[in-house]
Design goal:
Length: 414
């Protein structure tokens, strides 16, 4: 359980259909290794929003504020969210960055979410969001001359890119609608790109390596809010300095999430509402019909009735085998994930050889830094949030910790 200090507060988007046609990955920000997953996927969030002065609110303890968040049952809202991410992702020798390795597929006109959402890993973006219970959500990424939207309405999921006039369509499996169980078919990034979902992930990872306090009040999107401050305890090897969550004083909904680095400087991730309305969105917000001439890609439907008995078993075993060596060492914010890959020594491979740790070592060498220790030698790839060490013998150590902590973990594992 979190050790929460009872610090007291001192007294002292709307959906606009006429505008060009997007509260995760990200991310999902939590203490230690959970942060790594968020950083790779969503990582969402915004430079500090303009404040109109700190509101004078009743005193509240950190425990009371967390309880207020947990008790919030708000399921309807609409508004605008600003997301800014500055991970400090290293550049490749020939230009571009490591993020490009998992980005959009060249020449692919599909509007499938996985390729588009990689754009949120860096820079600033404006999203328009709306939700009406568990079965209706809409998120749009608003650009200068185009818009990318993801719409979930009942058992239908649509994604549409106005820039390429392409759409992606998926439906819940047969019988899922009757059971009311089709959230698993909605892209997770669609559900987790709001400050409240990210805040839930953070709070679920709070433990006795963490200090949690209420650190004043603020105004976000015209709403009075309490500021919940979450920090690793002194002596941590974490790259994270603090997590700040602005919580609506009235209904307990997180309005803003800011992740700051221990090294100082601007926020790594900052996501917050610039406009928000907790009324019921218009039903038409969740309607979608592909425009004339749009290229529509249908998600393939698995025919389980006629599938072989081992349907999906090979893929599951392959994934299970790849993660069989995954271990977590350390505690709390200092946790490091260790993965022992197969393939033995990472000897250099010939150009075009995609197999073995040698290929990874050669690729990382272009934008990483060589390190040595009792474990041998390897390459460290650093960002402002997550660092990774790939050893020459095929071990991978990754976490929201500094380089020395990774080397220490690799030495201990030798």
């Amino acid at each position: 359980m979190a050790r929460i200090r009872p610090t007291q507060v001192a007294d002292d988007g709307f959906w606009d259909e006429e505008r060009p046609s997007r509260g995760k990955k990200a991310a999902r920000y939590a203490a230690p290794v959970a942060v790594a997953g968020i950083a790779a996927a969503t990582i969402g969030l915004v430079p500090a929003l303009a404040s109109t002065g700190d509101p004078d609110l009743p005193k509240i303890s950190a425990q009371e504020l967390i309880s207020k968040m947990a008790a919030s049952d708000t399921q309807q809202l609409s508004g605008s969210v600003k997301i800014t991410t500055d991970l400090g992702i290293p550049s490749l020798p020939g230009g571009g960055s490591i993020a490009d390795l998992g980005g959009a597929r060249g020449g692919d006109a599909s509007a499938a979410p996985e390729s588009k959402l990689m754009e949120l890993v860096s820079g600033s973006h404006t999203l328009r969001v709306a939700t009406d219970g568990p079965d209706k959500q809409r998120v749009s990424i608003v650009e200068n001359a185009a818009e990318y939207s993801m719409i979930h309405n009942g058992d239908e999921v649509w994604a549409y890119d106005s820039g390429s006039n392409s759409a992606y369509h998926a439906t819940a499996p047969e019988g899922a609608k009757a059971k009311g169980d089709h959230r698993q078919d909605v892209p997770k990034d669609l559900r987790d790109a709001t400050p409240q979902e990210i805040a839930k992930t953070v709070l679920s990872s709070v433990d006795d390596t963490t200090d949690v306090t209420v650190d004043g009040t603020s105004r976000v999107a015209g709403r009075d809010a309490y500021d919940l401050l979450i920090k690793p305890k002194q002596g941590s090897d974490s790259t994270i300095g603090s997590v700040r969550i602005a919580v609506d004083a009235d209904n307990g909904v997180p309005l803003k999430f800011t992740l700051s680095p221990k090294s100082g400087g601007k926020a790594i991730i900052d996501v917050g509402f610039t406009k928000v309305d907790f009324g019921k969105p218009k039903a038409s917000t969740f309607d979608f019909t592909p425009p004339k001439g749009a290229k529509v890609t249908e998600e393939p439907k698995a025919d389980r009735k006629h599938a072989p008995k081992d349907f999906g078993a090979k893929d599951f075993k392959d994934a299970q085998g790849a993660l069989s060596g995954l271990k977590v060492v350390g505690e709390g914010w200092d946790s490091v994930a260790r993965l022992d890959t197969s393939g033995g020594s990472a000897a250099p491979t010939a150009p075009g050889d995609e197999g073995g740790p040698g290929a990874a070592s050669g690729l990382l060498g272009g934008f990483g830094k060589e390190v040595k220790g009792k474990f041998g030698s390897g390459t460290v790839v650093s960002t402002r949030l997550v660092n990774a060490l790939v050893t020459d013998d095929g071990k991978v150590f990754v976490g929201a910790v500094d380089k020395d902590a990774l080397v220490k973990a690799a030495n201990a594992a030798k």
